[in-house]
Amino acid sequence: MLPADLPDDLATEPARDVLAALASCRAADLEREGIAMYVAVVDARPGRGSSDQPGASSRPADTRLAELFDHYHDALARAGFPRPAHEPPDAPDLTGGGRELIDVLVVLSDHHLHARPQEVS
Amino acid sequence: MSGVLEPARQRAAFAAGRYVRVVNWHNTPATDRSTLRAELAWYAARFDPVLPEHLDRFVETGDWGLERPGFVPCFYDAYRNHVTVAVPALEELGLTGWFLPPTGALDVPHEQQRDYAAAHAIDLLPDEPDGPWLMTWDDLARIAERHVVAAHTAHHTGADEILTAEDVEREVHEPVRLITELTGTVPPAFAFLHGTVPVPGTVAGDAVLASGVRYAVTNTAYVRIAD
After folding, report:
1. Residues 6+ apart with CB under 8 A from B95
2. For the segment B83-93, what is each residue's pLDDT rounded down to a tens digit?
3. Domains, chain B, ranges and CATH?
């Protein structure tokens, strides 16, 4: 049972077929679509220290997002973080080493955060 | 800084409530006007737009100062259709967008824009056969009156392409300076092409970290890098 006060993006049930969800994201025309992303907020200023792993909050929304992250990360990890079929095996990682994490965030955010205006009453 | 690409740190940030919802757009063609408006309305019905001062407050206090969860609507790459489609939709809905133009694109004459775009990873759409495709400085000045303008290099450049002092001046310092002159304030954020992290000890990374810009926008995090 989910807490009643979750924002509705986080109350959405997780995708059962995460690989299909990843394929759907990769088929999207990202050049003309809004790409939804949950991103971290990090303080990397010298001496601030909060870029180290912070403690968990008690807010249900935060716990839920972390659980959803686990769901998508674990599913993609089990599948070996598949690269797009058309991508050469030696394709450079233009993101600087973040491809796998970005895939997790893209699938997570597309399923939960991406606007679904057909549901607007 | 490289920790922002570690899954364990991302999860910990989420669990700690240290995250923000972002939606990144590139082209916003007139053919998609109704879809864009509907999507922005969907977000506006649920989330409050985040301004740089909200981010500042959150980083310092852990409190956004917003009534609802925040979201950042971002528009990349200086497309003219931001002026004609995205901005009217944002303003109709009372939203504040973040615009990240490669500043060099703003100087390109209409007749050279197609070639410039092709050479700088700026995709033009088949349903916009006729230009202009890129906004001007006058367009950006109009946007800056009601929206956030942040830096995205001069020519849509990746961090791995910025290797010399000349590169740094052209792709980091000059865009920051030009946006500062236009808006009267140092741009709050900087993003490289591909959203790569400004890694300390690299030419490009050190330049951004010393630029005075407060946030590095990456694919996985908004990173506070300066006071």
Report:
1. B40, B43, B44, B49, B73
2. 999 999 999 99
3. 20-149 (3.20.20.370), 151-227 (no CATH)
**Count: domains in chain A:** 1
Give yes or no for residue B2 having a pLDDT over 70: no
Predicted pLDDT of residue A46: 87
**Do A41 and B13 make contact, defined as CB atoms within 8 angstroms?**
yes
In terms of Cα–Cα distance, which of B95, B158, B103, B175 is closest to B135? B103
Q: Is residue A50 predicted with pLDDT exceeding 80? A: no
Q: Which residues of chain A lie closer than 8 angstroms to B63, CB-CB?
A: none
- Provide the 10 A C-beta neighbour count for residue A84: 12
Phi-psi bin for B116: left (phi > 0), alpha (psi -120 to 50), beta? Answer: alpha
Determine whether the interchain pair B19/A40 forms a contact, defined as Cβ–Cβ distance below 8 Å.
Answer: yes
Interface of A with B in 63-102 (CB under 8 A): 63, 65-66, 69-70, 73, 94-98, 100-102
Cβ neighbours around A14 below 10 Å, total:
16
What ipTM goes with this model?
Answer: 0.95
Residue A26 lies in a domain: yes
Question: What sign for the dihedral angle of Cα A68, A72, A73, A74?
Answer: positive
Q: Which phi and psi (to 5°) does residue A33 adopt?
A: -115, 150
CB contact under 8 A, A41 and B19: yes
CA atoms within 13 A on the CB side of A7: 22
